[in-house]
Amino acid sequence: MSDTFIQDRCAIFLADLPRSIDGDKISRLHMAYGLPLPVDFQLLHDSTETQASCAAIFRYTDPTTTDGALEVFSGLPVEYNGRYWPLRAKLAGMKIPDRGPIQPKEMPKAPPVDDPIVLVREVPADWSQKDLMSFHLSLGMEEFQTARMMPSSDGGLTRHAYLQYRTAAAASNAVSSLSGSLVHPRSGEPRRLIAGLASDVRHGAHGQNGIRGRQQGPGKTSGYRNQARDRDSDHFEAGPQQDPYTLYLSDMPSDFNKKDLERLHDQLGIIKPKVIKVLYLRLNKSKSSAVLRYDTMEQAKSALMVLQDRLVLVNEHSGEEQHPRAQFARKRSPQLAFAQDDNSYGGSDHEDREEDDTIYALPSVYVAELPINITENGVRHMVQEVGGKLDDLVAVTFLQQKFKGSHACCLLRYQDMETAESMAEKLHGFRVYHPDDRTRPVRAKVAKHSKALNYMCTDVYVGEVPNNWTASYMYKFLTQAGVERNVIHSVKLLSQRPGRVGVGAILHIVSAEAADRVLEQLTGQEILVRGKPRPLKVRLADAPKEPWMEPEQPEPPQPPAPEIRKPAITAPVPLSQLQ
């Protein structure tokens, strides 16, 4: 005899309801869709508190009302914690089994445990491998080795992780210790971990720790809520907003540089990237990040599979372990075109770009402390007020503010340097009216040219300078090295990078010939850093480049170098006293 299923025409069974549903929400749900209220309802909760959904049985007065409710609730999308899934509705009923002999049900036997891998769910999304290690130590478990963190599938609250232990016995003990342990995600609501052997989950065994596969209905695919989990197997594929050729590596030690990354690729057997760019964080001086661009998508994917959540680096200065994280970098904005793409600019766009470069190369006046609401017409009116000619003004360029403030600034482009210097003198100190009913003076000066517009290299870069040196110490060292004082226009000490012992310095030389002589004199010089001699790194700061201006335009005249009196030095200072 076969089983008999008896349907109740006045009751429906609803599955995948949010766990937080109650009588008030059920009443509002019926009123929102114009349905009569049920005469009775029963909520069916799962025994595990971690389940996010529940089921219910609604009983109505007649079959017509039941059919209307069944039509409304079938496939109705509901939302819980930022996730949406459709409801499943059918007529309620009961199954009457046959009277035949009861056969014992044979469960599939799980294969023997051959790998020490444990799958843990409900792990807080903000936890890292270091946090898991601390959690294991708090439970008295020391066999934990590494972890592979999977992406979150519930809006960034929790995720699951694959934990590897030294032995299979340690993995079995970890399952019993971790199952039911209380953790606190960022949401503040405590959750309990669900742990099970990864081999049981892969072979479809029903573990006793709550990790089991969701059963499929006839003719249906996997559950809607499991679609995010099914995508975990493709986490090594780049998303639609990610660049499949570029990786972003974060949480690196601050002293990690390009050579260290190349050496790391050699040690791990990964093909080196085509471009490596190290990024130093301003707010956190103990960490840095890097952008790695590879030649092919296969190289980037292979590097991601090796680098993701597997590196443990030690910061040499703090002595702490850091766990870098690797992921595909985000794509560039579609408005930004690559320089190597010949088709990225059309005919008129290419001409506009050349025209912008020509305007950018003109002498400019930097004007600051302007009203925040000033327009280009207002700037031109201000130029007329101080006696300037609008025919000489080529363009007005407003500068974007890094921080939101109450003032604006701009650049006034002119054809020659004499006009720019004259307008800077006239505009400096001119008082303008601001929106707060006050007048303030304008600051104006001749803007410095971009480094790309320098026709002759007159700057020398000096590296490995001790970070406690000042400009006075630098002048003494240069005199000791035989550099004449009158060839140095000024000395600029660069800011110290995190994790570096020394700093850099820029020597502004009066001419290109003098810069070549200074370069020869400083090459091979050594200084004492922490009692050890270290050679200076000396090179030209700016390589000579062709100007961006049109060939028929004359070069802007260079202002004469000011006379610098040579100070009298009574006796040379030895290098050992400069520390």
Automatic annotation (TrEMBL):
Keywords: Repeat, RNA-binding. Residues 245-331, 363-449, 458-543 form the RRM domain. GO terms for molecular function: RNA binding. SUPFAM superfamilies: RNA-binding domain, RBD. Residues 203-244, 318-354, 539-579 are annotated as: Disordered. Residues 227-237, 539-548 have a biased composition (Basic and acidic residues). This is RRM domain-containing protein. It comes from Cladocopium goreaui.
